[in-house]
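Can anyone check this?
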Amino acid sequence: MKIFILLSGEHIELSEAELYSILKAENIKFSILARLPQVIGLELNREDIDKIIVRSSMCKLIGELLLLCDAGKNVIIDSLSKASINLKPRTFSVRIDRVRGCCKNISSYELEALIGSIIKEKISGSVDLKTPDTRFYGVLTGGKFVFGVVISQIKRSRFNERRPRKRPFFHPGTVEPLFARLLVNLSEVPSGKILFDPFCGAGGILIEAGLINCRVIGSDIDPAMVSGTAINLKYYNIDYDLVVADARYLPFRNIKYVSTDPPYGISSTTMGENVKNLVEAFLRNIYQCLNREAKICISVPQKLNIKIESGYKLMNEYFMHVHKSLTRRIILLSKENNV
């Protein structure tokens, strides 16, 4: 099935990285049809689309791809007139968006009206902008026009329902669920496998991992945080294993997937340890606990200038500006040469 995915425009590089991490984690076979600003075109099996919908934090919309052409009004109208639309909805709507001011010479309202007229002739349906049976969606981006039928519009507001203050145990140092889900996905952990968070805090990352059907294991040096995490995981009906442990001296072996956001805020505790030293000691000591195919996703403040120890391969890193005093550095690591 040919589809297109509209990604979040906030952090496009991270949005793409998350999508490809999900595809890899779920072992989804695909081919790339188009890579445009904020839009990716893929060909994959229909049943795999739900896996993307369930996991993603940065996908906004997924549609069945009907048309990909140059972004000229006449080209679009001519191409769509020739396109096959094998649908018979009673009602439909058409919406056109543009990315980064693409093709300002084309009126989106005029294009919606023209496309609506063509579709009406093809399927004999009537326009309903409020509750249509079928929603057609197009986007002007990178000098191209991408058009199709909406399969799912992914509401990122679903993450707001799990914001830290809405959980039974609250701690102000907890990452927001949207960002926690991103960190889980970037670790490439498959659903059904174990994800480990060695700085679990109030359980934000473990909650998001558990909700995509991962088995979760967490540890924290603070017993109060471990107790609070247990309360939160029970609240979301997530099975778990938790232990009070210093992340520099972990009682585990054969760890394969790690996702974590170590404490560094004013309200977080490091038990008196310098944050930079704590993170570097953690990376140094967890190495012996890792599976030879292990993946680590760790978020730290850029200003810490964390040193990556020898033995690790830096797979990628991304920078996310949060506010004037915090830019996050998201580091993806594997074992060098899988040793």
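Reply from J.R.: I decoded it. The longest strand covers residues 59-70.
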